[in-house]
Write a structure and sequence with these properties.
- The protein is globular and about 65 Å long.
- Strands 1-2 form a two-stranded antiparallel ribbon.
- The chain contains 17 helices and four strands.
- About 50% of the residues lie in helices and about 5% in strands.
């Protein structure tokens, strides 16, 4: 993609030409389109655009494994999946990120807030590092903030600086208009929060303007965002669709080789196709009659070092190679130096790692 360089003197018209995705982004965050003409926002884009493009690319690479899960959870709970950009700004999609203020995880929960949303935080186990649990908690918190303030950009800012801070800013300004609240001269909100919402909007504009799909790489095993899973012969696809919270017609369309809504009544297990964003719902809610397909409950990050193989990595974490391949969508055992992997581990291993034990 060819990018045009923006300077502080470039009018909003050029910004709209450069990022036509702004209309969608602004709509999802309840931002009025006139904010594109905000001089502070234009100045911010001019100053930080290239830096945030690099940040976006690095975050994308780091988070490609967890993004389908996060997107699926957001969509299922009625929150725009563009809120993954809030997580990107918070943590760069690092599950183990820790801030100077001791906020932890993809969504950077402080201990008190984490416990309020039923996340376990203790010396041996920190659920803020768990993708599913932390994303579910963030969704509940964001929904609560949206119900309180009525607009998604206000919910995002309250996520950063606190509900009381946003309430006081609105009362002092006599308005909840984004341009007024983030005015650099009036300073109704802390500088960190003013730049926080601008970062979210800009990385969202960059991401939604990109030609690639940031949630996953399109390769042979995940062509068009689909993945193959195993179910028992005789399983009702109608019942499975309910479990996955998707339309039966869509599931049947994806599996056109099956003539009926049942998997032909056969005793042997069958392989079917489901959307990649439904894969965690599948593993969490569906059990094969004779063999549970639930993944290990925790994920840890690992970068491949010289001489490591899938087998040696599996042995290190007391898991197996097939689980690692499934979690990382690997077609074979081939690894490269410094490759990022997410490793499914048991609670015991996760606790040992959290405590610094080998």
């Amino acid at each position: 993609m060819i990018y045009l360089f923006l300077t502080s003197s470039v009018p909003a018209l050029s910004l709209s030409q450069k990022y036509p995705s702004y209309t969608y982004v602004f709509h999802e965050f309840d931002v009025d389109e006139s904010y594109l003409y905000d001089t502070d926002f234009i100045s911010f884009v001019s100053k930080y655009e290239e830096k945030l493009k690099r940040f976006y690319r690095h975050s994308l690479q780091r988070g490609k494994v967890v993004l389908p899960t996060m997107q699926g959870l957001l969509a299922n709970e009625g929150v725009s999946d563009l809120f993954i950009y809030l997580s990107m700004v918070e943590s760069g999609f690092s599950s183990n990120a820790v801030s100077p203020k001791k906020a932890v995880g993809l969504w950077q929960f402080m201990p008190a807030t984490a416990r309020h949303y039923d996340l376990t935080v203790c010396n041996s186990y920190d659920e803020r590092c768990d993708t599913v649990s932390s994303t579910s908690a963030a969704i509940h918190y964001l929904n609560k903030l949206h119900k309180q303030f009525g607009k998604w950009y206000l919910a995002a800012m309250a996520y950063n600086c606190g509900e009381g801070c946003v309430q006081r800013a609105i009362a002092k300004a006599g308005s909840d208009d984004l341009g007024i609240l983030t005015d650099n001269e009036l300073k109704y909100l802390p500088r960190e929060t003013r730049e926080y919402i601008r970062k979210i909007l800009l990385v969202a504009m960059i991401g939604e303007n990109a030609t690639l799909d940031f949630a996953y790489s399109k390769n042979d095993s995940l062509e068009n965002g689909l993945i193959e899973v195993e179910i028992a012969g005789g399983t009702s696809l109608k019942d499975l669709a309910k479990i996955l919270k998707m339309k039966t017609e869509k599931l049947l369309k994806l599996n056109g080789k099956m003539k009926h809504a049942m998997t032909n009544g056969q005793k042997n297990n069958r392989k079917i196709i489901i959307p990649i964003e439904k894969v965690f719902a599948f593993y969490l809610r569906y059990d094969l009659p004779e063999k549970k397909k639930l993944p290990k409950p925790h994920l840890v990050s690992h970068y491949v070092t010289l001489g490591e193989t899938l087998e040696s990595i599996a042995n290190k974490y007391h898991t197996d190679t097939e689980e690692i391949k499934a979690a990382n969508h690997l077609d074979d055992d081939y690894l490269i130096l410094d490759q990022f992997l997410v490793i499914p581990v048991s609670q015991k291993i996760f606790e040992n790692i959290s405590l610094g034990k080998k």
